[in-house]
Amino acid sequence: SSDDIEDVSLFDADDDVSRRSKKSKIRHPVASFFHLFFRVSAIVVYLLCELLTSSFIACMVTIILLLSCDFWAVKNVTGRLMVGLRWWNQVDDDGRSHWIFEARKASAQGSKISSEAESRIFWLGLITCPMIWVIFAFSALFSFKVKWLAVVVMGVVLQGANLYGYIRCKVGSRKNLTSMATNYLGKQFLRQTVAKEDQTAS
């Protein structure tokens, strides 16, 4: 599959959002709430399920439903509303699969469409929760809770997929990621070389 990045307007409704006056820092409180609700609820149910019920099946189904709702909500709703990003897979007429990573265009007035508070909430939830599921994965592995490992891996995969998709939307294609890393390492190497030369000269 080939990767494409497009800088296009997501939906016509987004133009209406940019015209609204900023009455509060959080312009989409419902989206902000559900961005955190499903993922935090899945973590809480995982931590407390053995205290709440003895049925492993009930806990597993509840956690997977919460993770699935979170994946859908973050991928299709909260990312678009809170930070103006979205990603999906598109199959063309030839049957080839393309991954599309979109970023909303800046408004004509140059004003920021998404608020800083919403952006912080979005990225904090998007980055922190997959890290917690990775910790759960190591915990289940080392404590030999094999039956929970499948549930935890589901959490890592679903939330990790959204994290990867939105990072690609934010920074661009894989080539851009590679060039950014190369430039960063080159600058670090240059700084260390200059610092050593200064120490030698002094």
Automatic annotation (TrEMBL):
Keywords assigned: Membrane, Transmembrane, Transmembrane helix
For this protein, the record's InterPro entries field holds: TVP23-like (IPR008564)
Per the record, the major location class is: membrane
One Pfam annotation reads DUF846
Q: How does it sit in the membrane?
A: Multi-pass membrane protein
Residue ranges of the TM segments: 29-48, 54-74, 121-142, 148-167
UniProt key word Transmembrane: yes
Which biological process annotations from GO are given for this protein? protein secretion; vesicle-mediated transport
The Gene Ontology CC terms held by the record are: Golgi membrane
Question: Where is it localised?
Answer: Membrane
Q: Which family does it belong to?
A: Belongs to the TVP23 family.
Protein name, UniProt field:
Golgi apparatus membrane protein TVP23 homolog
Q: Source species, please?
A: Psophia crepitans
